[in-house]
Amino acid sequence: MTLALFLGCNIPARVKQYELSSRAVLANLGVELVDIREFNCCGYPIRNLDFKTFILSSARNLALAEQRGLNIITPCKCCYGSLKKADHELKKDSLLREEINRFLSREGLEYKGNIEIKHLLSVLYHDVGIDKIREHIHSPYKGLKIASHYGCHALRPSHIVQFDDPVSPTLFDELVKATGAESIYWPARLECCGAPLLGVNDDLSMIITKKKLSDGKQSGAHYLCTACPYCQLQFEMVFMNSPKNNGKFGLQPVLYTQLLGLCMGIDRDHLGIHLNQMDLGTLEAHQT
Length: 288
Hints:
The protein has 288 residues and is α/β, with parallel strands linked by helices. The chain has helices spanning 10-14, 16-28, 51-67, 77-92, 94-104, 120-128, 130-135, 158-161, 171-177, 202-218, 229-240, 256-263, 281-284; strands spanning 2-5, 32-35, 72-74, 117-119, 145-148, 182-183, 223-226, 252-255.
């Protein structure tokens, strides 16, 4: 399986370990990634400011992948939601599609709507498969309880993203279980991480994040597992300041690709563990 890797802006700049661990895990599972250097921002930052510019930004990425006959895989749920949204709008609105293609034609590009946009978790679950993942696990976890954080952009709007059941999703839980860990039930598991409000209403952003971390910890989790760079950064920021809260919000976040990669026996450096703000030593202590 060969896919075009769309990293977006945030991962290369701030969460390089997500890229490293994604590449390492996917290579181990036989997924070939193609880097398209001409990719640009998915358009998410201007989505609510200039809709057509947002669509054009996403459409250009889709057209570049189409030009090479490749489906897109992205580890970022914001990018996933943006690309899916643009693809949906362009397919339903022929006038918008014609207008956007007039701009794209200046570069010899054209959006036709012939490729799929996939999130990393979707590829692992649907294309690679749970059984194959289990075959590649050398040191499964035992007694490890994980609070799986689904995030907003992969679940809503559900008729566009089509990631999983928006009310009762199971995909992420099953991927966590494949590592030998237990994916626990926790009441706040589908709530926002608070990142979209950071810089707009910091107090409310922190309240939302702390509520999630507190709920996950009270529900018995040892770690909170993420699969989105924005969510990972948000949880890390609050966790790093948790000592003054006497550990109340001390539920450490871990990227799923690192959680999976460690039990697959992939070297820590290849997973970017050294780039994390916190050490994952206690995580490895749960391996059999």
